[in-house]
DNA sequence: CCCTGTCATACCCGGTAGGTATCACCGAGA
DNA sequence: TCTCGGTGATACCTACCGGGTATGACAGGG
């Protein structure tokens, strides 16, 4: 009566994202007519029209927008439940309640902090096994939400902590990373304005889920690519202090005076109740 | 393959809560054998054993505990999606995108603040319609989670803000509410210790989802009941300052010196993106 | 040793999810 | 204007599976 099955949600999400029944059906690996019928049934059961069938295409109604947002959260929660249950059970069978936590970290960030955290936690009396899951640019939120990870290191203001519990671990300034020979590399400090429009060094554009923001700089999706382009004198980058750990000989780091400080948090889903997680958080806040 | 249908989740939750297939089946309005089979299928598909079938009864495995917690969140998110979509659509049809927000407030609390908030918001240029939903003791969290409400007034430290976004609205001290004639009512201030074990006035025990904490005091599930019992000289209560609004003539309020301050927040699900909600929050923080 | 309460198995039936074929509609061209 | 390509909706069929009833297997308690 008012149940909203997972399958229906999946179907609707596909249609709402594609705005095209045929493509959505293909993406779902099914034929178009059953999909049309399923969406109609969903609309009837909810007593609400979700899609505006215009001539030549489909668009979302207000209710459709709502279901797109809320349904995303619901689907994430559902797949998170499945994944975490699988993990809990897989650990369960080999022998004893061998807990395992998946920790998502932005690849390459906070190396030293991560090292200290893992070492300190491993020394705890009954430490769980920690699997470190490198995540793409700002992808930790999604990983926590859909259960790929149990806990994450996040960096405000880049990551949003909305909806998670978190503890502050570290605050650091930001630096500009320049080619060693560049004139600006001789400065003791710089401002954001100084580095944001150097004619010969446009800021690189990071990939976010495969798309790039517009601008003149080179397209990047990997720290190594970026490091190389800087070393070649093609671009400049802004990073937290801890990025000094991976600088090359051809790089020069110059502190930025007016860049917002980067705050590293440890964050986890607010409803988590795991002992292993509690232990990790305790260890982290004591560092 | 890895989908975890809503129906399966519902079934498992029932069994996990009842720890008894027969009762769970009855609660679900179905027969026991199909339920057994569904749970078996679920376990097979997840590749994990969720329940320990002992002689004479059922208990949860580690994975089962995990699915109980995570599944609750997932089910709440799903019913929230359905409810909010229905609301968004119902408003959609009469005429124009007539937004409506459901605001959960603990019945009787923060009367003055609520009044000011509603008045101020109604004066806004394009204010949505606000439906005030009185909630039981500390039930606002659940209402936000399963979509019965869109936004809530919460009172730290009684409500937990975990998993929600929130803004602080007001801080107030707490008072003891005594029968007017009682000796302690003559004091200018009291401490928690003073009121926690008055021999003739045991603290009342509030109902939480139908159960009562142990203790000598009377069982209460309604502010009016409590007010009456205080007026009759049978009990004493501790409340935030703003409770003075509903005191009777037979009541006396005495400030408590060492009670933790009560902070009223406005809270909402972290993923909300509604314009109407943003307007309400803006109004609230400007009060 | 039977009786009772539990969950599992066996078997059947009906609803429905999904497939194929086709229709109805509209816009773009020739 | 007529046709053609592409859209979503309809009609109809099949097969799967969710749910029901009847019964089995097993363990404790009298």
- The share of residues in helices of chain A is 25-40%
Note poorly predicted spans of chain A: 91-97
Please give the count of helices of chain A: 9
Share in β-strands of chain A = 15-25%
Radius of gyration of chain A: 23 Å
Please report the distance between the alpha carbons of the first and last residues of chain A.
52 Å
Question: Quick one: overall form of chain A?
Answer: flat
In quaternary terms, these chains amount to homodimer
Q: Let me know the average pLDDT of chain A.
A: 88
The number of distinct β-strands of chain A equals 12
Q: What's the SSE pattern of chain A?
A: HHHEEHEHEHEEEHEEHEEEH
Short description:
Two copies of one chain form a homodimer. Chain A is an alpha/beta fold and 287 residues long.
